[in-house]
What we know:
This protein is of the alpha+beta class. The chain has 2 domains: 3-150, CATH 3.30.1330.10; 171-325, Phosphoribosyl-aminoimidazole Synthetase, Chain A, domain 2 (Alpha-Beta Complex), CATH 3.90.650. The chain contains 11 helices and 13 strands. It has helices spanning 3-6, 8-22, 72-89, 109-126, 180-189, 199-206, 212-219, 233-244, 259-264, 269-275, 288-297; strands spanning 33-36, 44-46, 52-60, 93-103, 129-137, 142-150, 171-175, 225-229, 247-251, 281-286, 302-309, 315-318, 324-325. Strands 8-10-7-11-9-12-13 form a 7-stranded mixed sheet, with helices on both faces. Strands 3-6-4-5 form a 4-stranded mixed sheet. The longest helix is centred in the N-terminal third of the chain and has 18 residues, at 72-89. It is globular and about 65 Å long.
Amino acid sequence: MKVNEIGEFELIRLLSKTLSEHYTNNELDTIYSEVVGLGDDAAVWDVPAGHQAFTTDTLVNDVHFDLRFINPVDLGWKSMVASQSDIAAMGFRPLFTTVSLGLSGKEEVDLLKDIYKGVADAASQFGGKVVGGDTVKSKTLFISISMLGYDPSDDSQPNPLKRSTAKTGEVVAVTGSLGSSAGGLRILLDKTGTLPQSQQLIESHTRPRPQIDTGVWLAGHGITCAADISDGLIADLGHICEASKVGAEIKIDALPVDADLKSIFPSDWEKLSLSGGEDYQLVFTGAKESIDKAISSLETPVTIIGKITGDYPEIRVLNSQGTQDSYSSSGFDHFKNK
């Protein structure tokens, strides 16, 4: 059954039913009450007063995803994580989400229901309950997620993590492993079938996890500067350096890299860990004692990889010999990258 066989309104009914069947309440549902839910002109909710954050991400077929290499449930999950990670990078928690679809009408309804299963699964685990959205005619399939987050702290003054507060002398740290998503994508795209399979790397690409609890903890324990790693470490650290008018120095030997990435890509693991996107980890800066506290307190691994310098806007990458290597910090550009 295709979308153009049932029409827009029946599709919306089916997708709303899919969300209700697959969404599981979590602790965030206790902080607000529904006044008007899905199905009206707009959703209405009673929420506590406080500081909020807003973000939006759009994933376009053949630009951000290829359904030959990712199943639709994982695509729905990943669509949500892209926005959840932005909220996490502010030190906030996801609250509400709207999902808009661009459809040609030739898509199978079951494909879209599976996407919404992934959306509901990610919302159930990490927050961001879907309260509305839109469907439009489009030559290209796309998924557009808009997400509202909230500050869970009791502080009267907002304390969001920002890109513009890094200071010379602070250390640079990251969560998790770097380059795993890019490595997983290379495995999925391997046409020769010669690359060893690594479920760890593949799931890092298809089923990433946003660092929400970590972001909230950092914002509450003296860290003020962070960004999520969606474009690659060098690019996203570059955003921090640009906004803070500082430079940075990082050591390749200090990077947290999955053993599979090193063994499968012995010649490319450095580039993948520095420039590979969609890890959805966090890069942040702070006083060493604050970072040391994060290392000892958080469940997610935290690794110091370098320091902030006054050499704006240079990012120096030092190899094992202590000499400087050159890596691009431009990241993915929709209008420059081909």
